[in-house]
Design a protein that fits this description.
Elements (H helix, E strand, L loop, with lengths): L9 E6 L7 H12 L5 E7 L4 H8 L3 E4 L7 H4 L2
Length: 78
């Protein structure tokens, strides 16, 4: 599948509340590395520059910085 008028590039935004890399972030990096760049454009918002943003940029992810509050199940429904 290629980018055509009938099949435009899909844009995916990831919002993450930390800049370090652990298991979940490794999975994201693996996903971004293997996504078809002809069909997907990935964007990442993180609170500040760090290991995750550095590696994401090297993979062609468009990185932006914005404060992201930490989310947890406990405070989602308050």
């Amino acid at each position: 599948m290629e980018n055509t008028p009938n099949n435009p590039i899909k844009r995916i935004l990831f919002i993450h509340d930390k800049c370090d890399i652990s298991g979940g972030e490794m999975s994201l990096l693996n996903l971004w590395e293997n996504l078809d760049k002809n069909n997907f454009k990935v964007f990442l918002i993180v609170p500040e520059k760090g290991k995750l943003s550095d590696k994401a940029e090297r993979l062609g992810v468009s990185v932006n910085f914005l404060y992201v509050p930490k989310l947890s199940i406990l405070n989602l429904f308050n």
